[in-house]
Design brief:
Helix content is about 40%, strand content about 15%. By secondary structure, the protein is α/β, with parallel strands linked by helices.
Length: about 450
């Protein structure tokens, strides 16, 4: 027996599925009971989340007791102390499979407590670890006896092909865009599969994905990491201009990694969308109007282009109104109010209360994707204008907008109307809904899109 256990590190970015891999590994080890070179069946100790070990000594006793029962089904004795656990474990050949090892990696008390339970019986330790700056530095090439298994990003092409074969043909039809949006990350692919319904359009599926709770949780994680970071530094990450060797502290390594061929990159385009939203809450409303060319440069899919165009037009309208339809009067400003679903009426009342007798216009900016029917609501002196920005040729009716906002407009004695900001080939007929051409609302942006993109989903390189 070796003096020190063999250490196997399983490290990865969010969504790859390393926790599932470790759970399956533990199950297979328990089920198959492969004998080691000494002729003994190993004792498999599986800890699904090491964070639970931080709670108390009793938490360690509980999880060790559960593992003893898994390995010795007829075991029925109480275990109330570390010494009693250690007595049971004495002489066992333990394979320790521990996920979220990062959470206790620097907590020597917990590691010592776990070691006291297992004694010297552990001969293989498999550590599941989330990628962070410390883990990334530890994984840099160096002399080590550790076995390192690193999973960044998502499936390779062959694995992605298998995934497509097991899902509706709809996803194969949109294979290229699906691969770029998700980065072929299993977690994100599962979200697409879950929200898809027979007969759905690609655009509607992408919109529902953005409303999924998994996406919201990813955004919360990014927001927490970048909460204290300066907006300019967040923008540097968002536009993939980070030097990993010298600026790794800027990087949330759960979502970004260094690819041998592509350099610094995000696990998926959807992650860049979420990080953009984090950045937008840290900056002035018009900051994007000087920075947007950098965003378009990184738009690898038409869905991403559409998302960025929507945000750019929103910033442009906040500055100038809708040129040709609802231009901002020279003596007015437009004040932006962000709101979450369910707070429409409260936000509207607050905006009107603050405006009082002043003359500014209001731009209501929903903080959820695909707010009923529209991307924003411009409130002029007399009218609620629900605005939808699209680069598609057609769009579903704005009926959800009118259903939600007509009573609110009436409560302020104001009119209500709908408006699309769209390309020249856009076709839409709906009562009380007008069209403003993208090239008229923001001509410079329209020229850049015409230069960079073909009328397909492929970027001109």
């Amino acid at each position: 027996m070796e003096e020190k256990p063999i250490i196997v590190k399983v490290v990865g970015t969010i969504g790859y599925g390393k926790s599932h891999m470790l759970a399956v590994l533990a199950l297979l080890l328990l089920k198959n009971q492969v004998k080691n070179r000494f002729g003994s069946v190993p004792f498999v100790c599986y800890i699904p989340d090491c964070k639970t070990l931080l709670e108390s000594e009793s938490a360690i006793l509980t999880i060790l007791h559960q593992n003893i029962v898994l390995n010795i089904p007829d075991f029925a004795e109480p275990l109330n102390t570390i010494e009693e656990v250690r007595a049971v474990m004495q002489g066992k050949m333990v394979i320790l499979v521990a996920d979220q090892w990062n959470s206790i990696d620097e907590n020597q008390m917990v590691i010592d407590r776990l070691g006291s339970c297992l004694g010297i019986s552990v001969y293989v330790e498999i550590h599941g670890m989330s990628m962070n700056a410390k883990t990334w530095r530890d994984l840099l090439p160096k002399q080590t006896s550790d076995d390192r298994n690193i999973y960044c990003g998502g499936f390779n092409d062959d694995e992605f092909g298998v995934w497509l074969k097991h899902h509706p043909p709809f996803f194969t039809e949109h294979e290229d865009e699906l691969a770029l949006l998700t980065g072929k990350v299993p977690l994100l692919l599962s979200v697409f599969a879950r929200v898809y319904g027979n007969g759905d359009s690609w655009e509607s599926v992408v919109q529902r994905v953005q409303l999924d709770e998994n996406m919201k949780e990813l955004e919360r994680s990014l927001s927490a990491f970048y909460n204290e970071m300066d907006g300019d530094l967040v923008w540097k990450v968002c536009t993939l201009k980070v030097d990993m060797m010298f600026e790794s502290e800027l990087v949330d390594h759960r979502f970004f990694f260094e690819d041998p061929s592509r350099g610094f990159c995000a696990t998926s385009e959807l992650v860049l969308w979420l990080l953009y939203r984090v950045w937008s809450k840290k900056t002035a409303d018009d900051a994007l109007l000087t920075k947007w060319p950098e965003l378009l440069f990184h738009a690898a899919t038409r869905s991403t282009l559409g998302f960025y165009v929507e945000e750019i037009i929103k910033a442009q309208i906040c500055r100038q109104g809708v040129i040709g339809k609802y231009p901002r009067p020279n003596d007015r400003t437009i004040k932006r109010y962000r709101f979450n679903p369910g707070s429409e009426e409260v936000t509207l009342d607050l905006a009107f209360e603050e405006r009082g007798a002043k003359s500014w216009w209001i731009l209501l900016d929903p903080q959820n994707f695909n707010h009923p029917g529209v991307d924003m609501i411009l409130v002029t002196d007399t009218t609620f204008v629900g605005i939808n920005v699209t680069i598609a040729k057609t769009h579903s009716p704005l009926e959800p907008f009118f259903k939600m906002w007509t009573p609110l407009a009436a409560s302020k004695n104001m009119e209500i109307t709908g408006l699309f900001v769209a390309p020249d080939n856009f076709v839409h007929e709906e009562e009380n809904v007008a069209i403003s051409l993208l090239k008229n609302v923001y001509h410079e942006l329209w020229l850049r899109i015409e230069t960079m993109w073909l009328p397909t989903t492929r970027k001109v390189v």
